[in-house]
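Request: Mind sharing a record?
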Amino acid sequence: MKSFAVIMAGGSGERFWPVSRKDRPKQLLKLTHPDETLLEEAVNRIAPLISRESVYIATSLPLRKAVQEEGLVPENRVLAEPARRNTLGCLSWAAANLLSENEGNDGEIVMAVLTADHKIGQPDRFRETVQLAMDTAARTGGIVTIGIKPTRAETGYGYVELGSTVQTGSLTVFQVNRFREKPDTATAEHYVASGNYLWNSGMFFWTLRGFMKEMSHANPEVYQTILQIANGLAEGDQEAAIRSFESLPNESIDYALLEKASQVYTVAGDFPWDDVGAWDALQRSMPGDSQANVVQGQALMVDTTGAIVYNDTEDVLVTAIGLQDIVIAVTNGAVMVCHKNDAQRVKEILQRLPADSHLR
């Protein structure tokens, strides 16, 4: 078996405005590590297991050059989706590229689908979990996820309902009964209390042949489209490949495949994990001071607790007095202040800015 990683890095990171912009979104920012961007963290984390020559970064067309300039993988390993088609489009484009480059060997290819916006601790344990997930995909021909044991009743994540145990040992593999959408608070509390649910981490593993087989049953039209894209790429007809791609529905891979697949498994991951989805995630990912303030950049806090401050400027000092649980994000040209509980609403600011604003 030959292993390839596909790191999804095409998001816009709107909840990290104003630091995250359309030409420099969150995956290209140093948010949870002082010296590495989120994307750099993701590549460095998997590189000891899967060589950089076998790591693909799936991003959007406008971000291709910026991602290539990061120099994390060979330039031809940066895959630019021709148009936005959610995670289904991202992974269909990646699968088609692998099919076109490995014609006739799809049964020998294992794909590890990762994302660029996760904060993950204990990297050795993470890689051990990924290896088991890839081995399970190769052995069963099914779809494999990594589920994370919940540490709180989180309403911002999807959940995986566990079925029977498939493998025990240092790590446990379960069959998946079903995927659950993001719950309300009461439902999330029930999930956590039951002990029968894991967070859906959004990391997936499959053999290329297994992926295509499951897709042929779950979504025959998408299956045919992926084959058409792969044929266009193999023949050097980029325009034909793009035309086929543009016919894909704008859907998540969860909806298009995972919820309909016949063989789905999950490896219960026990490494520290968080989805870096909004400013409040920094408080869970970064060490705070004695007052639980998380600060990056020049800042002075007086009688302030639980604050998150990200100062992306060199000549501005951010100060706060007598405040609690606030977020302050400062960059050249824009300042954003909100309560930590409203961190998910930051993208509403972008909805009010003119479409041609240089601040988007």
